[in-house]
Amino acid sequence: MTSVAERPDPMSDPVSRHTPPAARRDLGWIGIPLVAAVGLAAYWLLPDDLALLTRIAASALFVLSLDLVLGYGGIATLGQAAMFGTGAYAAGIVAVNWINDPFAMLAAGGIAGGGIALATGALILHARGLTLLMLTIAVGQIVQEVANKARDWTGGSDGLSGIDPAPVLGLFRFDMFGRTSYLFALAVLVAGLLVARRIMRSPFGLACRGVREDPLRISAIGGSPKSYLVALYAVAGVFAGVAGALTAVTSGIVGLDSAGFPWSAEALVMLVLGGTGRLYGAVIGTAAFMGIHHILAASDPFHWMGFIGLFLIGIVLFLPGGIASGLERLGGLLRRKEDRA
Amino acid sequence: METMFGIAVDGVAYGMILFIISVGLSVTLGLMRVVNLAHGAFAMVGGYVASYAAQTAGLSYGLALVVAVALTVLATLPLERLLYRRIYGSANELAQVLLTIGLTFVIVAGINYLFGPTLKRIPLPEMLTGTVELGPKAIPTHRAFVIAAGAATLLGLWWLLERTDFGIRLRAAVDDPAMAAALGIRTERLYLATFALGTGLAALGGVLGAELLPLEPYYAIRYIVLFLAVVAVGGAGSIFGSAAAALALGIVDTAGKYLIPNFGEFFFYAALILILFRWPHGFFKGRAA
Amino acid sequence: MTRTLRNALLGTAFGLALAAGPAGAATIKVGVVAPFSGPFGVAGKTFREAIEVYQAQHGKTVGNDTVEFVYKDLDQANPAQSKALSQELIVKEKVSFLAGYFFTPDALAVAPLIDEANIPCVIFNAATSAITEKSPRYVRTSFTLWQNTVPLAEYMAKQGIKKAVSAVSDYGPGLDGEAAFKTTFEKHGGTVVDSIRMPLKSTDFAPFMQRIKDSGAEAVYAFLPAGPTTLAFTKAFSDTGLKAAGIKFFGPGDLTQEPDLPALGDAALGVTTSFNYSRAHDSAMNKAFVAKHKEMFGSTDTVTFSSVGAYDGVHVIYQMIKNGGGGKIDGAKAVESVKGMSWESPRGPLTIDPDSRHVTQTIYLRTVEKVDGKLENVEKEAFPKQPDYGYKVAK
Fold first, then answer.
1. Which one, A269, C223, C314, C364, has least CB within 10 Å?
2. Considering CB atoms only, which of B120, B254, B265 is closest to C199?
C-alpha cells in the first residue's frame, strides 16, 4: 500500500474497473428517482419503523460524502467522521445557543464540515496510501478529543442534548412518531444525491476522476492534482457536515461517537458493500447494512458480527463492485435476454 | 533528571511492547503489500490460546507461549491459501482492507462465542512478577523481560532478512516478483512463509503484551489503530523503522501523559501528524530492513 | 388549521393505540435499551439475567397483567441511536416503560421522548448525577459517582490521610468523581495534591503511576469505567511498586467489579473500594438471588452491580404497575406513586428519594479478599442512607 505513492499505477484502483461506463450511466439517472420512490413507499409501508428509516437516510448522506472522496477522488480515508461530527456539533451548538431553524442548522453543519475538510485536506492530502489513512485517523481523533475537552460547548462525553429544532417551514413539528423527521431526512438525501450527481458530471467532477485515474496526465495538461483533491475533499466535507447536522436535527442530540473512528470505518464498510463511484451505491449499502443489522441484532447481536464479517469476505471475493454492481450485472443479463427475445 | 530518566524507561518499555506486536504487521504490509487489519485479531488469537493453554491445560508460561505461536500460525495458514492469496499486490488495497475487516469481525464473534466476553489473563511465572531496580527507577520484571524479548526479536529479524538465503530471496521477490519468479524463486512458498512469520510475530506480541493490552474479544479492533500508527511512522517493511517508531511514539506518549495528562491523547496524535508531515513515508522508506 | 387538525389526529391515534391495549388482562411491555454486543456486552447480559431471575422469583404477572420485556441492542455510547431505538420501542412496540441505559449520553437522549409520550424511564446503570434533572419521568436504581465517593472520601480523611491524589478517566462520570472527592476530602481537612485526568482509551498507565508517586501523596483515589483499562490500571499500580511503597489505593467499586476479578488476580488483593453492591453481600435475600442466578445460568461469574441495578429496577416497575391498579400506565402518576418507596433489595435497604428520584442506599466499604479460593469484595464497613450528593450540584 505504501509503495503506491512511489510507483503510481493506473491500475491501482480496482473499483472502477468492474462495470462498463455505459451500464453505469444507464442506472445513474434512474437511481435518484428510485431512491425517492422507494423512500416514499417505505414511509407508507413501514410507518412503525420511521426511526430506523430516518437514521438510514441521514447515514446514507454521510456514506455518499465518502463516495465522493473515495469513489471519485480515490482518497482512502478512515477519518470522514471528523467532518460528520464537526457538522453535527456545529448544528447542535447553533441550535442550542442561537437559532433552531432546521435549515439554518443544516447550513451551519455544511459550512463547518466543509471548513474543517478544507483546512485539514490542505494539510494532509499530499500523502498517499497508509500514511494518508493514518493522517485521516489522527485528524478524526483530534476532533473527537477537542469535542471531549470543550465540555461547555459540546457537553463532552455526556453528549450535547437539548437540541430542539423548530418546525420545518414553521408548519411541521418534529414529533416522536418521526414522520416529519423521516420526510425531512429523505428530502435532504434526495437533494444531496441530485447536487452530488450534478457536481460529479461537471468539468470539476470529471477532472477529479481524471486525477484518480492518472494524476500524472492531469499535471501534464496543466492541472494541479492536489488542489483538485483538496477541493473535492472540501465538497465532500460539506456533504458530511450536512449529514451530521441532519442527524442532530432528527435525533436532537449529538454524542462523541459521531466523530469517532468506528463510525468512519462503518461508513467505509457500508460504501463498499453498496458499491463505490456510483452515488446511489452509498444508499443501497447503507440501507442493506443497517437494515440487516436491525433484523439480526434483534435475534442475537454477536451473530450479527459474524454474519457481516462473512458477508464482507463474500463481497470481496465474489462481487468486488458491491451490491450495486451485482444489480447492474443482473440488469445487463436481463436486457440481453430481452434483446434475444 | 530522575523524572526524565523515569519517563525514558517507561517510554522504552511501552515502545518495545508496541514494537513486538506491530513488527509483524510491518512485515506483511511492507514485504507482501497486504494491509492486514486482521493482524490485531491474530495477536488476540495467540493470546487466547496461551491463556487457555496456561490456565485450563496447565502448561508453563514458556510452553504456553510456544504453543500459542505454533497454533496461531497453523490456524492461519489455510487463510493465506484461501483468502489472502487472492488479494496480494498493491492494486487491491480496498479489497484488502475490507476482507481483513470482515475476517476480524468473524474472529471477534468466534472468540466471543468460544471464550465469552470477560477478560482473560495469562498467569505469569514467579520469575516475571515483582519489580527490578534500574538505578532510581523500579520497573516491573515483566516489562524488563519484554524489553529484552523485543531486542531479541529485532536482532533475529534483522539476521533473518539480511543474512540468510530466505531473506535474500524474499527481498528479491519483493523488489521484482516477475523477475524473481523467472529466476526460479518459488514466490508462492516464499509468501506463505512470510505470512507465517507475520502471524507468528502477531501471536508472540499478543502473548507478551497481554499484561498491557488485556485480552478480550474486542482486542482485535481496539488496538489496531495503534499498530497501524507504528507501521506508518516506521515505514512499512522496515524492521529498524518499526523499532524506532515504536520507541518514539512510546516515549512521546509517556512524556505527554506524565507532563500534561489532561491532554494525553492529543499528544500522541499531534506527534503522529507532525512526524508523518515531515516523513510521509515513515522514518525508513518502505523496503526490506 | 392544518396543524391543529394534524395534531388532533395524531393525538387520537396515539390515544387509541394506548387504549386498545389494556382491556382486562393485558400485556404490559417494558423496553430495555442496553449493550448486548460489543465491548460492553457483559452489561446487557447482566441486565437480562437479573430481569429473568426477578421474573422467575416473582412471576411474570402483576394483578391481571403480564409483564413482557423487549430488548434493544445499543453496543456503545451513541445517543442518536439510543433515541431511535427508544422511539421505535414506544411507537412500534407500544411499551409502557423504558428501562436499561448503560451510558449517560444514551440515557440523556430520551428525555424529550419520555416527556412527550408520558412514559417512565427506569435507569439501570448510567451514573452521572445530572440525568434525573432532565426529566421528571426518570427513576434511577443504580448509583452515582457522588454517592459512592462522598463516604469513601470521609473514610479516607478519618483514617488520618492528609495528602491524596485523584486519578480519573477524562469523561463525565470521572469528572463527577473528581469533584466529589475534592469537595469532600478537603472539607474534612485533607489536601488533594494533584488531580489527574487520564484519557479514556489509555492502555499504558506507567506515566500516571510515576506522577502519583512524585506527587508525594499518601493515598490515591482512582476511578475508571469497568473493563480492560481498569484491569491495566490496577495491575500497573501493583507492578510499578506503588503498592510496595505504601501508597494506599481507594476508589469506587467499578475498579474491582466481579466479572473482572478473576483476570485481575492477586494484583487486586487488598484494594479498598466503596460501592453499593458486592456479590458477597451477607444477607438472606442476596443469597437467594445469587442461588437462583446460579440455578438458572449455571454460574455467578457475571453477577455484579449492574445485576442489582436491573433487579431493583424491575421491582420498581412492578410496583408502578401495581400502584396503577392494572391497565393503562400514566407515566407522570406512576413515577409520582413510587416517590419515597422503600424496600429490601439484595444489596440492602433502598428508598427512592422524592426529589432526585434516585435510590438512597447503603454504601459499603469493601476489600478484595480470597473467599474459598475465589476473589470477592468483602464488606468491611457500611455507611447507611447515602443520597445522591451530586443532585443539582452546579458543575
1. A269
2. B265
Q: Across the interface, do B282 and A2 touch by the CB < 8 Å criterion?
A: yes
pLDDT-based confidence at residue B1 (cuts at 50, 70, 90): low
pLDDT of amino acid B11? 87
Contacts of A313 in chain B (CB under 8 A): 83, 99, 102-103, 106
Count the domains in chain C. 2
Q: How many domains does chain B have?
A: 1
C270: containing domain: 145-275+363-386
**Residue B25 falls inside a structural domain:** yes
When scoring C171, C197, C204, C255 by the number of chain B Cβ atoms within 10 A, the one with the most, hence best to mutate, is C204
Does C197 contact B261 at a Cβ distance shorter than 8 Å? yes
State the CB neighbour count (10 A cutoff) for residue B151: 13
pLDDT score at A89? 94
Same domain, C263 and C125: no
Integer CA distances (angstroms), B195 to A121, B155, B170, B187, B189, in order: 35, 19, 12, 12, 10
Judge if C311 and C209 occupy the same domain: no
C240 contact residues in B (CB cutoff 8 A): 131, 138-140
For B218-240, how does the pLDDT look when each residue is reduced to its tens digit (9 = 90+)? 888 888 888 888 888 887 778 88
Same domain, C113 and C168: no
Q: Which residues, including other chains, have CB under 8 Å from residue B61's CB and lie 6 or more apart?
A: B54, B122, B123, B124, B125, B128
Q: Extract the C-alpha cell encoding B191.
A: 509468501
Question: Has residue C392 been placed in a domain?
Answer: no
Distance from CA of C354 to the nearest CA of B (A): 37
Instruction: Write down the pLDDT at residue A7.
Output: 37
Domain spans of chain A, in order of start: 28-284
Task: Please check whether residue B230 touches A, CB under 8 A.
Answer: no
Residue of B nearest to A270 (CA): B98
Name the residue in chain B with its Cα closest to that of A120. Answer: B273
Task: Report residue B87: phi and psi, to 5°.
Answer: -120, 15
Would you tell me how many other CB atoms lie within 10 Å of the CB of residue A209? Answer: 18
Confidence of residue B92 (pLDDT cuts 50, 70, 90): low
Q: Nearest CB to C39: which of B138, B218, B250?
A: B218
The residues, ordered by sequence, that sit 6+ positions from C27 with a Cβ below 8 Å of its Cβ are C21, C65, C66, C67, C68
Residue A109 has pLDDT above 90, yes or no: yes
The stretch C110-136 carries a mean pLDDT of: 88
